[in-house]
Write a structure and sequence with these properties.
This protein is α+β, with helices and mostly antiparallel strands and 150 residues long. The protein contains 3 helices and 6 strands, in the order ααββββαββ. The chain has helices at 5-40, 44-75, 123-128, and strands at residues 91-94, 97-101, 106-110, 113-118, 136-139, 142-149. Strands 3-4-2-1-6-5 form a 6-stranded mixed sheet. Helix 1 packs antiparallel against helix 2 (44-75).
Length: 150
């Protein structure tokens, strides 16, 4: 892929920050909608609507908390550190794609393709931990060959 670790982390931060901004906007809109329902209505129909909005607010709040934790994980990655083996913060290229280990960002688009950010608790990260270039692992019947590490 030929992209620096810093560029990867910056792209991931931007991706997660966009998620956070979107979630905050949705939350604000729902909270305003809920306030208007409270002021202007009474009765079972409106109580049900408020309850549903409240559940959606809780769901979005949980998603926002998770996104903020991922952003925190990204900020902890030392982009200058060059490891000999896979560890938290490693960017790895395999025959099955490029991965950032240690921050669950999901699929992130880059200028030269995309990568997947996976948490340290993911089966892939656990299997790759400590591996070196040219090492192989099999996960769920899929063979992964470590082609590059940075």
């Amino acid at each position: 892929m030929s992209i620096s670790k810093q560029e990867v982390v910056e792209a991931c931060v931007k991706h997660i920050q966009n998620q956070i901004d979107r979630l905050q906007a949705e939350l604000k809109e729902l909270q305003q909608s809920n306030e208007q329902n409270t002021k202007s209505s009474a009765g079972d129909k409106h109580e049900t609507a408020r309850a549903m909005v409240h559940l959606e607010i809780e769901k979005l709040s949980n998603q926002l908390n998770i996104a903020e934790l991922v952003l925190s994980d990204l900020h902890k990655i030392n982009v200058e550190h060059q490891a000999e083996s896979v560890q938290k913060g490693s960017v790895i290229e395999t025959n099955r794609g490029t991965f950032l280990i240690g921050a669950s960002t999901g699929k992130v688009m880059l200028d030269k393709g995309f990568l997947f950010g996976v948490s340290m608790d993911s089966p892939l990260a656990k299997a790759l931990l400590g591996k070196k270039v040219k090492d192989q692992i099999t996960l769920n019947g899929n063979l992964f060959t470590l082609l590059d590490l940075y």
